Amino acid sequence: MSALPNPAAGPTAGRATGPARRALRGVLPPLLLLAAWQAASTGGLADPRLLPPLERVAAAAWTQLTAGNLRDSLLRDLGGFALGASAGLGLGLLLGLSPLAGRLLRPSFDALKGIAVFAWIPLIAIWFGFGEASKLAFIALAAFTPVVLNVDEGVRGVPAPLREVAAALAWTPWQRLTRLVLPAALPSILTGLQLGLIHAWLATVGAEYFLAKGSGLGGVLIEGRDRFDMAQVLLGVLLLGGVGYALNRLADLAARRLTRWRTA
Amino acid sequence: MSAPGDVAARGRVELRGVGKRFRVDGRELTVLDGIDLVIEPGEFVTILGASGCGKSTLLRLLAGLEHPDAGEVRHDGRAIAGTGLERGLVFQEPRLFPWLTVAENVAAALLNAPLDADAKRRAVAGHIAMVGLGGFERAYPHQLSGGMAQRVAIARGLVNRPGLLLLDEPFGALDAFTREQLQDELRALQAREGFTTVLVTHDVEEALYLGDRVVVMSPRPGRIRAVIAVPLGQPRDRADELLGRLHHAARAALRDTLPLAA
Ligand SMILES: Nc1ncnc2c1ncn2[C@@H]1O[C@H](COP(=O)(O)OP(=O)(O)OP(=O)(O)O)[C@@H](O)[C@H]1O
Ligand SMILES: [Mg+2]
């Protein structure tokens, strides 16, 4: 027994440097790309109108950030995600918990999920108009589908042997839901939420780009394109990628914290 | 639920003409056939049989996880219709909740027990110490060895002090030393508190050392082949001469049950 790791001790010191070094390796290619970009545009290899030097992108960043476009996009994204993810949690739990609801609704849902999310844009525009409501609806819809799928799958995947333990311990239905089904489904639920977050972010820009123009990063892209301001377009692309990456990392960290028991 | 102490008055088990069939690959498989057995309150009965003879199925019927296709199963006079806190079950595998710590896994059995928080905490700590896992209260199941996990499962099965305790090969995954130690702990606890106990095993020595009676089962279909009474009190001496003689009888009964011996 003494040979076993002390459960009270945290992760070993050796493991702490691993992820840091890996993360560093991960940012190396983008940094090299930026360096090549800068070299190409200042060294005259590329037309600076098509590939503006980094300082012009940085200058554009300052204008756009102070104009609040990034903030508007983020708020819109999180609002739509919150709506879609809560609805998705609800439907996913219903499908997974109620065999009747599952049999009744799962086929329709499977059919619906095959429709590319952008195909909904015309319908949403007609139903909700071209304002903020339709953007939120579109983002919510994009987040909704992966959440439903993964929550449903997670809930149905609760191991039968553990269900029997809960029965043997005479747990009430509520105890089974909160102490068995939800914890067992948590990894799946978190996967769904993380996918929903990514889809919502993609949909945010899509909504801003394809629905009526307004504030937000989609607007930055459109304006840059219309004015042939490549610095602004490239800034938009960089911000999209950066925010998407950051959201994904945050979701990853949160998921890992919440399911510590798998690796603690 | 009642307080520990008066459990000795409860825990009578009756099996009358019990049969159980399963459909396997489109064919009906009779797993248990004509099982008749009465277990008196406070008795310690061990069920001995080769792999696949239906021991786990019999225990699951007693737990209320399965229902008989023929006959009836009664606990304290009432037909067993489902699971309940008046019956405790230790499965053949640990079946711990991976997201709960050792202490939380044991406490999971007390969720609906009529005890206050302090009494629950004491019961959990006491049972973890009893199975020799003091210091591992906050470990997660994946940090335990197989034998340690099974000891947590035993603590979880015992902590609630059910009138009828059902154990499915609980010591199978343990090393010889820990096994003997836990056998003694279980037997002492049972002698002290008097809950009825049914323990499944395929280890002849264990069956004889623990049981007031040893029920020997034959496979395909699972039937009761012999019932061997062990007229010895507690605690017992593992080297007792009578145990040695009964060992031969039990082995003979068991050997007769094997199709190859015919
Ligand atoms: N749910 C089930 N569905 C179909 N067949 C089953 C089911 N449960 C048990 N059986 C069959 O019943 C028979 C007895 O199984 P059981 O688990 O009771 O045996 P056992 O005596 O506990 O064996 P072991 O000592 O290996 O644990 C086996 O042939 C098994 O295939
Ligand atoms: Mg078995």
UniProtKB/TrEMBL annotation, chain A:
PROSITE patterns reported for this sequence: ABC_TM1
UniProt GO BP: transmembrane transport
Compartments it resides in: Cell membrane
Domain of life: Bacteria
Classification via Pfam families: BPD_transp_1
InterPro entries, sorted: MetI-like, MetI-like_sf
Gene Ontology CC: plasma membrane
Domain ABC transmembrane type-1: start-end pairs: 70-251
UniProt protein name: ABC transporter permease subunit
Organism: Roseomonas acroporae
Automatic annotation (TrEMBL), chain B:
The keyword Cell inner membrane appears for this protein: no
InterPro entries per record: AAA+_ATPase (IPR003593), ABC_transporter-like_ATP-bd (IPR003439), ABC_transporter-like_CS (IPR017871), ABC_transporter_ATP-bind (IPR050166), P-loop_NTPase (IPR027417)
Stretches that traverse the bilayer: none
Keyword set, alphabetical order: ATP-binding, Nucleotide-binding, Transport
GO MF annotation list: ATP binding; ATP hydrolysis activity
Tagged with keyword Transcription regulation: no
Domain ABC transporter residue range list: 13-244
Matches recorded under CDD domains: ABC_NrtD_SsuB_transporters
Family designation: Belongs to the ABC transporter superfamily.
Protein name: ABC transporter ATP-binding protein
Organism: Roseomonas acroporae
Organism phylogeny: Bacteria, Pseudomonadati, Pseudomonadota, Alphaproteobacteria, Acetobacterales
